[in-house]
Specification:
Distance between the termini of chain A: 24 Å
Strand content of chain A: 15-25%
Number of helices of chain A: 28
Structural class of chain A: alpha+beta
Strand order of the largest sheet of chain A: 16-28-27-26-17-24-25
Number of strands of chain A: 28
Helix content of chain A: 40-55%
Shape of chain A: elongated
Number of strands of chain B: 0
Largest sheet of chain A: 7 strands, mixed
CATH class of the domain at 488-518 and 628-743 in chain A: Alpha Beta
CATH topology of the domain at 488-518 and 628-743 in chain A: Rossmann fold
Oligomer: heterodimer
Radius of gyration of chain B: 21 Å
Largest interface: A-B, 34 and 29 residues
Chain lengths: 812, 53
């Protein structure tokens, strides 16, 4: 209680010290602060959310975390009327009984304890909401509500209103809502752990050598108990290893699970025979321990980044529905050629078509890599995936969504092949070698003892199989790579799985996309070329640009800042494809592209001319802004790694880029998505292993084809195409270190293998002589596993620290 | 000494009870989400303020 109060207090003092910080989201308020209840807000949206929250007695939201909200100034209103369509709605609903409906939302904005608290108090905002539960890891909210009191659409609007905009995508319509949690592994682990503990207990007389003085009744009793306990381990917990081994052998590939299965089988049969014939105590403790340790390794490795998806295709990028000409909405799956649809500002074009009406200014940067928006005249074609920036458009569709130019890319071969197997390559190769070694050792032992002392032959043979079972080997990859995956994740580099680290270590060609990857997609450096502008002129230009929603006008007005309120703009009109005309303080301004410039700006740079009173005064030049740390990151990449730039854009800034890449021959411009894919394939056919870094849908094919495809993203909430690794933009500088860490971790896997092998040599020396007793096995096997786990832990942490990674999660 | 046999059977029975509890916990979804409950439990005990306005 005290803690909460002091938290509230410090919150308030903070607000008083810095009056320009938004009380809701913590963003600076700027000139347009909204004041509610004596508190500053950066925008109307934040203030509204604050009011909803406090008016419903949920003030605690602001005491649980510092500045728990997020700025709403950038978000535009969305029209959710399409959610009233029963068919669309029913596809999004998880469960319905009478009027009670359960639905699962993906809310990417969930980021702190306050979010959980607020979202689970939804029932206080609307009486129709029965219950709401958050799954923080998956950024999901499950809501149970009464349909006759609050409609699905109203629920979505409520969530949007308080700042949590549900991510409803085309993919949701095809998805089933099954939880992706692997409970089976948890059951297996529990059963194995249970059996392990109890079998050890019942093996105590054996460990202490008490059997000689106790009558054989007890030892037989314990033997059968152990057998009973080991049965579920053998039949349930260990089944996945048998299955994987058989699957491997079927495709003529011996993986690590083959020797493991051999060992488990040998352990079980030998122990059962010993107990049955009352010739010994068996190795059930080793069996249960082995399976238990193996499963722990598996569980450790399984931890993944639930909130991130590495498998997304265009369906996750597209919205669920489109607006028809008459204002009704239709699910995207039902759009047919011939439909006329409306596309508003910032909306995506869902399918290929022809522009009928409107000033189209289409941003294809995400789908094609072109950095500048393209002006389209009525009658021309528009392609799916482009984003309209500007007014409303009317389109006549010529294709369905699935057959559009962009979505057809997904029919390409590389999107369906899954040759990048999920299993660790090192473990596969080692497993193969290892199996042959122990099989030849086992049969060698068998042959030797058959000749020397046939009574001992089977005993020695099974002992070799038991002791050589590569438990420690099998733990090396999960623990070293699993740790690597976690540590990288804590540093903003999220990899799909441990095998990605292995692939990363061997890459030798770096392929970079340009727009959005090495440059910022939505920012550019603006330079003025011409006569110096006076302060009044700057303000006038800023005021005029603020009138237009053209992207270039918007970035210009952002660049020039907010003009004083005293400036008024008269006679404003915008000529599509040309520019803006207006009168400010009795001066005529024309801003845009008019074709007759006094100076010829470099042709490859986007520019905006300014004419005052019909005379040209100069141009604003828009240079791409390169990602912070780009030069350093590339400089830290090893020199022998060849670099290529593959961009969908026209040639720009070639001098700087060829310096960066190392050679002007390695700059490839105007590459279509299919060209990029082909480029990667060519590199691979020359025995290169490609590390590709991209960001948009236009890179999707090449990313998938690459040995390691890395997607760079400003925000983890954004859509990212299918990839092996998602790199948060602020971690871009870490890229060379990530690759270095990958290489070090791979060498540590080999060292851990060496360590495990040493134990094996000791054990085998007993086994080959036919002297392996249960107690030696019971000591040696856990000991070797533990040593490997400890080694893996220390090695991966030390290497990460040495390379400057932080071990702990500071992201959330 | 034979009473040991009975005691051991009993101990195993108790252990089986715990295994059953574990399976029940897993089945009821307690292992599905291991992060949110940790946040939730910090909130639940907090005294609720009545609707103020």
């Amino acid at each position: 209680m005290d803690q909460v109060n002091s938290g509230a207090l410090s919150e308030e003092t903070l607000v008083m010290e810095q009056p320009d910080i938004c009380y809701h989201c913590g963003e600076p308020c700027g000139h347009e602060a909204v004041v509610t209840d004596d508190r500053d807000f950066c925008c109307q949206g934040c203030s509204t959310v604050y009011q909803i929250i406090t008016r419903n007695g949920l003030d605690d939201f602001y005491t649980l975390a510092e500045k728990p909200g997020f700025s709403l100034s950038q978000t535009s209103k969305l029209d959710y009327s399409w959610l009233d369509d029963p068919e669309t709605r029913d596809q999004l609903i998880a469960f319905r009984q009478g009027t009670t409906v359960r639905v699962l939302f993906e809310l990417p904005q969930i980021h702190c304890a306050s979010c959980v608290w607020l979202l689970e108090k939804l029932y206080r905002l609307n009486d129709g909401i029965r219950q709401s539960r958050v799954n923080f890891n998956r950024r999901e909210l499950s809501v149970v509500f009464e349909e006759d009191q609050i409609s699905f659409r109203e629920l979505v609007e409520l969530l949007d209103h308080i700042g949590y905009r549900p991510a409803i995508r085309l993919a949701d319509l095809d998805r089933d809502h099954a939880p992706a949690v692997n409970r089976r592994l948890i059951y297996q682990l529990g059963v194995a752990g249970f059996a392990f503990g109890n079998i050890m207990l019942f093996s105590f007389p054996e460990y202490l050598g008490l059997n000689s003085i106790r009558e054989s009744l007890f030892s037989r009793y314990f033997g059968y108990l152990n057998l009973a306990l080991a049965l579920p381990v053998f039949l349930f917990s260990a089944t996945d290893y048998f299955r994987s081994a058989i699957a491997g052998i079927r495709i003529r590939e011996i993986n690590m699970d083959v020797p493991i299965s051999l060992g488990i089988l040998a352990l079980f049969i030998r122990s059962t025979v010993e107990v049955w014939t009352a010739t010994g105590a068996g190795y059930f403790d080793s069996l249960a321990g082995l399976v238990f340790f193996l499963l722990i390794g598996k569980w450790f490795q399984q931890k993944s980044f639930d909130r991130l998806s590495f498998e997304r295709d265009y369906k996750s990028y597209f919205p669920v529905s489109a607006t028809l000409e008459d204002g009704t909405t239709r699910s995207l799956n039902q759009l047919v050629p011939g439909d006329r649809i409306l596309v508003r500002n910032q909306e995506l074009i869902p399918a290929d078509g022809v522009l009928l009406e409107g000033d189209a200014m289409i941003d294809y940067s995400f789908v094609s890599g072109e950095s500048a928006p393209v002006a389209i005249q009525p009658g021309e074609k528009v392609y799916a995936g482009g984003r309209q920036t500007g007014g409303r458009l009317l389109l006549h569709l010529s294709h369905t969504v699935k057959q559009s130019y962009l979505t057809q890319l997904w029919n390409e071969q590389s999107f369906h092949s899954d040759e990048k197997g999920r299993a660790s390559r090192i473990a596969r190769v080692m497993g193969g070698h290892f199996t042959w070694i122990i099989l030849s050792l086992a049969f060698g032992t068998l042959a030797y003892w058959l000749a020397v002392d046939p009574d001992k032959a089977i005993h020695a043979f099974s002992s070799v199989l038991i002791i050589a079972c590569p438990c420690a080997l099998a733990l090396a990859v999960p623990f070293i790579m699993g740790n690597g995956v976690r540590i990288l994740g804590n540093n903003g580099a999220y990899v799909r799985g441990p095998q990605v680290i292995e692939s990363l270590a061997t890459t030798d060609v770096l392929v970079l996309d340009k727009t959005g990857t090495i440059t910022y997609a939505d920012q550019s450096d603006i330079q003025w070329q011409g006569e110096p502008l006076s302060g009044d002129q700057k303000n006038a230009i800023a005021a005029i640009c603020r009138q237009s929603i053209h992207p270039l006008s918007q970035s210009l007005s952002a660049h020039l800042g907010i003009p004083p309120r005293s400036i008024t703009v008269h006679d404003f009109h915008e000529i599509p494809g040309q520019g803006l005309h207006a009168t400010v303080q009795d001066q005529d301004y024309a801003i845009g592209r008019f074709g007759d410039t006094g100076v010829a700006p470099e042709t490859d740079i986007t520019s905006v001319e300014v004419h005052v009173n019909h005379t040209y005064v100069g141009s604003f030049l828009f240079q791409p802004r390169y990602r912070q740390g780009l030069v350093d990151a590339l400089a830290n990449m090893p020199d022998h790694m060849t670099r290529h730039l593959v961009s969908g854009d026209r040639p720009v800034d070639q001098a700087f880029l060829s310096d960066l890449i190392g050679s002007s021959d390695h700059l490839h411009f105007r590459q279509l998505p299919a060209d990029k894919l082909k480029f990667v394939q060519e590199q691979q056919s020359n025995k290169h292993r490609v590390l590709m870094i991209g960001d948009g849908l236009n890179d999707a094919g090449a990313l998938k084809q690459s040995d390691v495809g890395v997607v760079i993203t400003e925000s983890l909430n954004n859509f990212t195409p299918a990839s092996d690794m998602i790199l948060s933009a602020r971690s871009f500088i870490l890229l060379p270190a990530v690759r270095k860490l990958a290489q070090r971790l791979v060498s540590h896997v080999y060292l851990a293998y060496g360590l495990a092998f040493l134990y094996n040599v000791v054990g085998l020396s007993f086994a080959i002589r036919g002297d392996l007793s249960p107690i030696i096995a019971a000591i040696l096997m856990p000991l070797s596993s533990l040593s490997v786990v400890i080694y893996a832990w220390i090695a991966s942490h030390l290497e990460s620290k040495r390379l400057g990674f932080s071990i702990h999660d500071h992201d959330q | 000494m034979e009473v040991l046999i009975l005691l051991i059977a009993l101990s195993l029975l108790i252990a089986l009870g715990f295994l059953g509890a574990f399976i029940w916990a897993t089945r009821s979804g307690q292992y599905d989400d291991d992060e949110t409950p940790a946040m939730r439990m910090l909130h639940e005990n907090h005294p609720q303020k009545a609707k103020t306005e």
